[in-house]
TrEMBL record:
This is 3-methyl-2-oxobutanoate hydroxymethyltransferase. Pathway: Cofactor biosynthesis; (R)-pantothenate biosynthesis; (R)-pantoate from 3-methyl-2-oxobutanoate: step 1/2. Binds 1 Mg(2+) ion per subunit. Its EC number is 2.1.2.11. Homodecamer; pentamer of dimers.
Length: 275
């Protein structure tokens, strides 16, 4: 996310929504990762990740739930605050949890305001034209919105599981129409999850706002992954996931070495002890 200066290009001190928009217009891909705690957030900031998503995926990746529908609003406030207190440069996006916006615009604004107070700079919610009133209300309240279409995890039961969306021509056309409705309602960006690459390329070309893909091919303006998947910690190896490290295996190796040294009284040694 370079910003031009007299001496060349330099990264802006703070990533704003306009920087994502500028990246789309310049054809410059940007990256987003989930983050839920100070250690991961600070590492991602140091790596130059442009946007951090405090996702409702915290319910499945950290809290041990089987579905994101179990993630509560209080969970989101807690983890959003943790990340917000830990970083400065990345754009901080937080999910509206299941049940916090479906009832209508007033409910959406109420819960989004609390997320903003916790440190969120943008909120994300799932759905298309059906939640356009909520998006308009949020934008009218001064709260930037990121949409989410394709496979929407909070609707996993209605969608009969984790399934690619928009494969048939009619379904693809509907997905494009829903994306346009989200944009028209005032969203500043949109996540496309488990969408055929050709369909996401079409949506990206038709929208003026940035698209962010997860299992949606290379044509989106940005990409997002759950960080535990990206780092090989979760053990999830979906088709769209690339593990850039194997932290799960390394953590197990370290814990095993610690266990063995404690059992053998090799740790703590004299260098770890006080006189």
């Amino acid at each position: 996310m370079a910003a031009s200066t007299g001496s060349g290009s330099a990264r802006p001190a703070k990533i704003r929504i306009r920087h994502l928009q500028q990246a789309k217009e310049a054809g410059r891909p940007f990256s987003m990762l989930t983050a839920y705690d100070q250690f991961s957030a600070r590492a991602f900031e140091a790596a130059g990740i442009e946007a951090l998503l405090v996702g409702d995926s915290v319910g499945t990746t950290v809290l041990g739930h089987s579905s994101t529908t179990a993630t509560t609003h209080q969970d989101m406030l807690t983890f959003t605050g943790a990340v917000a207190r830990s970083v400065h440069r990345p754009l901080l996006v937080a999910d509206l949890a299941f049940g916090t916006y479906e009832a209508g615009p007033m409910d959406a604004v109420h819960h989004a305001v609390e997320l903003v107070r916790a440190g969120a700079e943008m909120v994300k919610l799932e759905g298309g034209s059906a939640i356009a009133p909520q998006i308009r209300a949020l934008v009218g309240a001064g709260i930037p919105v990121m949409g989410h279409l394709g496979f929407t995890p909070q609707s996993v039961n209605a969608l009969s599981g984790h399934r690619v969306q928009g494969r048939q021509a009619e379904a693809a056309d509907q997905l494009v129409a829903e994306a346009l409705a989200v944009q028209e309602a005032g969203a500043s960006a949109i996540v496309l999850e488990l969408v055929p690459a050709e369909v996401s390329a079409r949506i990206t070309a038709e929208l003026t706002i940035p698209t962010i893909g997860i299992g949606a091919g290379p044509s989106c303006d940005g990409q997002v992954l759950v960080w535990q998947d990206m780092a090989g910690l979760s053990g999830f190896a979906g088709k769209f996931v690339k593990a850039y490290a194997q932290l799960g295996a390394e953590l197990e190796r370290a814990a095993s070495a610690y266990h063995d040294e404690v059992a053998e009284r090799a740790y703590p040694g004299p260098e770890h002890s006080f006189e």
